[in-house]
Amino acid sequence: MLGKDASFYNAIGPTKELNDKFSINAVVSNIYSKIASDADKKSEQNSFGVGAKFIVAVAENAEFNIGAAMTTSSTTGKDNKTVTTFSIPVRISLKF
């Protein structure tokens, strides 16, 4: 992949239904991206994340999700740095 741009996203996450209304989900993910205009100016980013969420089925076509997630991202190239982020994602899903 030297001198080529690339991006990959991988994730796996099982969901356990507790009953008709409530479920829990856990996920592990990885995002890798590489931007290389030439061999001297390449930049890579690798992000690893874990999370868990609680899912409530509000209606037949609507659900509410709330959870906790942690992501660690490292960047190489011109700016070498590592950032860890904690978040509480909240989502409402409607299906039509």
What are the SSEs and their pairings?
Elements (H helix, E strand, L loop, with lengths): L5 E7 L2 E3 L4 E15 L5 E18 L2 E15 L4 E7 L2 E5 L2
Written overview of the protein:
The protein has strands spanning 6-12, 15-17, 22-36, 42-59, 62-76, 81-87, 90-94. Strands 1, 2, 3, 4, 5, 6 and 7 form a seven-stranded antiparallel β-sheet that branches. 0% of the residues lie in helices and 73% in strands. The model has no long low-confidence stretch (mean pLDDT 88). The protein is mostly beta strands and 96 residues long.
Return the average pLDDT rounded to an integer. 88
Derived from helix and strand composition plus strand pairing, the structural class reads: mainly beta
- Runs in which pLDDT lies below 50 for 5 or more consecutive residues are none
Distance between the termini: 42 Å
Question: Summary?
Answer:
This protein has 96 residues and is an all-beta fold. It has strands spanning 6-12, 15-17, 22-36, 42-59, 62-76, 81-87, 90-94. The protein has no helices and seven strands.
List keywords for this structure.
single chain, 96 residues, mainly beta, seven-stranded antiparallel beta sheet, 7 strands, 73% strand
